[in-house]
Amino acid sequence: MSTQLQRSEQETDESPQEQRLERKRFDESEREAQRTEEESTGDETPYVHLKVFRYDPEVEGKREPHFDDFRVPAPQGTTVLDALMYARDEFDSTLTFRHSCRQAVCGSDALFINGSQRLGCQTQIQDLDQRPVRVEPLPHQEVEKDLVVDMEHFYDQMEAVEPYFQGETPDEEEQLQSRENREKVKMSTRCIWCGACQSSCNIAAGDNEYLGPAAINKAYRFAMDEREDDDIKQHRMNILEQEHGVWRCQTQFSCTEVCPKDIPLTEHIQEMKREAVKDNLKFW
């Protein structure tokens, strides 16, 4: 109990009940003062408390995973990536994380923020209710250092579906695409290879050979393109129909929920399942 509260109780003849009420009011004011102190300074600049995952296998004393605390300024418009960059530049230059364009295009700064896969550059501090803001590397992937994870397996899964157009190119004719077909594949083209969906998928976490939602979405983008040859589409379907392809999806929608580009990943996976069924039901 603080000295101030002890003195107030000694100088009054309040009943025990009144003293308890007074203590409750005092505790509430103390908590409010602490919250205000955490969020602002004398110049009324708002601050935020970051709790950041740390790990460095090459440095003695940092090989055990732990969390470090940073208190950084967070005026309106500050993103989690902005806060991390401030912490790195002002407090600890060894803090390691990926970032590039800062416009939600490169996909390099996917993180696990307050228990959800998000892009650091797209996540506004003021939109996060939980304090302190907890920042961790993407789950279900090997951590290399601090917030950096090994993306090699993710890239291998993406390459496995041959994510490029393979239609026959006429010598002198432009390959036209109808408006309807463009609308059909439009959302699937927005993928930025951030890996957030793969990290959120429980099936991918338990089955290292599962292609994953990002790779299947990329296959959807080309398989459903009317300009691709039938033989090539059949080749893609053969890839998706294998044991660790579309049939491993259990329709949990976790990938769709965390996608920073709002791609209906689960819907695309289900459509590829329907295509696989139709392909196997042909009688001619």
UniProtKB/TrEMBL annotation:
Its cofactor is [3Fe-4S] cluster; [4Fe-4S] cluster; [2Fe-2S] cluster. Pathway: Carbohydrate metabolism; tricarboxylic acid cycle. This is Succinate dehydrogenase and fumarate reductase iron-sulfur protein. Residues 17-38 have a biased composition (Basic and acidic residues). Keywords: 2Fe-2S, 4Fe-4S, Iron, Iron-sulfur, Metal-binding, Oxidoreductase. Residues 49-155 form the Succinate dehydogenase/fumarate reductase N-terminal domain. Residues 1-46 are annotated as: Disordered. Residues 189-263 form the 4Fe-4S ferredoxin-type domain. Belongs to the succinate dehydrogenase/fumarate reductase iron-sulfur protein family. Pfam families: Fer2_3 (PF13085), Fer4_8 (PF13183). InterPro entries: 2Fe-2S_ferredoxin-like_sf (IPR036010), 2Fe-2S_ferredoxin-type (IPR001041), 4Fe4S_Fe-S-bd (IPR017896), Beta-grasp_dom_sf (IPR012675), Helical_ferredxn (IPR009051), SDH/FRD_Iron-Sulfur (IPR050573), Succ_DH/fum_Rdtase_Fe-S (IPR004489), Succ_DH/fum_Rdtase_N (IPR025192). GO terms for biological process: respiratory electron transport chain; tricarboxylic acid cycle. One of its GO terms (molecular function) is electron transfer activity.
